[in-house]
C-alpha cells in the first residue's frame, strides 16, 4: 500500500507539471515529450498518445528490468494517462512561460525521482536511463537529458525559438533534480533487487 501511495504521489506531481507545460506549449522530454509534441501536431489527446507510445518499451523493460519493474511502470503510465485525461477540469493557469516552465519542471523532476526511488518509471528513456545506471552506473539524470534534448530539438520547428529554449530549460531543470537523487535511486533499487533474490531463493 505504501508503495502504491508513493507511485500515486509521483504521478500526481508529474501530471501537474506536464499540464502546466502543456498549457504554455513547452515540451518536456522522453515519451511524455513525444506524446505532447504529437498532440500538438495531430490534434490527438496526450493521455492516449502517451499510453500508446510506451507500449514498445515494455518489451525491453521485461527483458532487462524484470516483471516487477515493468508492471510498476505500466501502473505509473496508466495513472499518469488517467490524471492528464482529467486535466481539462483544471482552470487555465495564467503563468509566464519562464515561471511556468520552472514550476512545471521542478514538479516533474520530483515526480520522476519519486517513481525512480520506488522501482518505477514512466517508460521510454526512463527505462533505458535506469537500466544504464544499473548496468554501467551511468547518471540517470544525464542520460535522460541527452535523450530528452533530442526530443525537444525535434519540436523547435513548430514551437518556435523562444518556446524551444524554454523547453531546453525545462529538461535541464528536472534532469538536475534526478541527478541529485542518483545515489539514493541506485541504492534503493539495489536493495529491491536483493529483496527479490531472497524471496525467490
Automatic annotation (TrEMBL):
Principal place of residence = membrane
Q: What name does the UniProt record give this protein?
A: YitT family protein
Per its UniProt record, what PANTHER family does this chain match? UPF0750 MEMBRANE PROTEIN YITT, UPF0750 MEMBRANE PROTEIN YITT-RELATED
How does this protein lie in the membrane? Multi-pass membrane protein
Annotated Gene Ontology cellular component terms: plasma membrane
Q: Known Pfam families for this protein?
A: YitT_membrane
- The entry's keywords: Cell membrane, Membrane, Transmembrane, Transmembrane helix
Coiled-coil annotation reads none
Mind telling me which residue stretches traverse the membrane in this protein? 38-60, 67-86, 98-131, 143-159, 165-181
Where does the UniProt annotation place the signal sequence?
Answer: none
Amino acid at each position: 500500500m505504501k508503495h502504491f501511495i508513493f507511485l500515486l504521489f509521483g504521478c500526481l506531481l508529474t501530471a501537474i507539471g506536464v499540464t502546466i507545460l502543456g498549457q504554455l506549449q513547452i515540451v518536456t522530454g522522453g515519451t511524455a515529450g513525444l506524446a505532447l509534441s504529437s498532440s500538438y501536431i495531430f490534434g490527438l489527446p496526450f493521455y492516449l498518445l502517451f499510453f500508446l507510445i510506451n507500449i514498445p518499451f515494455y518489451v525491453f523493460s521485461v527483458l532487462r528490468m524484470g516483471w516487477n519493474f515493468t508492471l510498476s511502470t505500466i501502473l505509473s503510465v496508466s495513472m499518469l494517462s488517467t490524471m492528464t485525461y482529467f486535466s481539462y477540469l483544471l482552470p487555465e493557469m495564467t503563468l509566464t512561460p519562464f515561471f511556468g516552465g520552472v514550476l512545471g519542471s521542478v514538479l516533474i523532476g520530483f515526480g520522476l525521482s519519486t517513481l525512480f526511488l520506488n522501482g518505477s518509471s514512466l517508460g521510454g528513456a526512463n527505462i533505458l536511463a535506469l537500466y544504464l545506471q544499473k548496468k554501467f552506473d551511468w547518471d540517470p539524470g544525464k542520460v535522460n537529458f541527452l535523450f530528452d534534448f533530442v526530443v525537444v530539438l525535434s519540436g523547435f520547428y513548430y514551437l518556435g525559438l523562444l518556446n524551444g529554449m524554454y523547453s531546453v530549460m525545462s529538461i535541464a531543470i528536472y534532469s538536475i533534480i534526478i541527478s541529485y537523487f542518483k545515489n539514493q535511486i541506485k541504492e534503493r533499487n539495489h536493495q529491491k533487487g536483493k529483496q527479490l533474490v531472497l524471496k525467490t531463493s
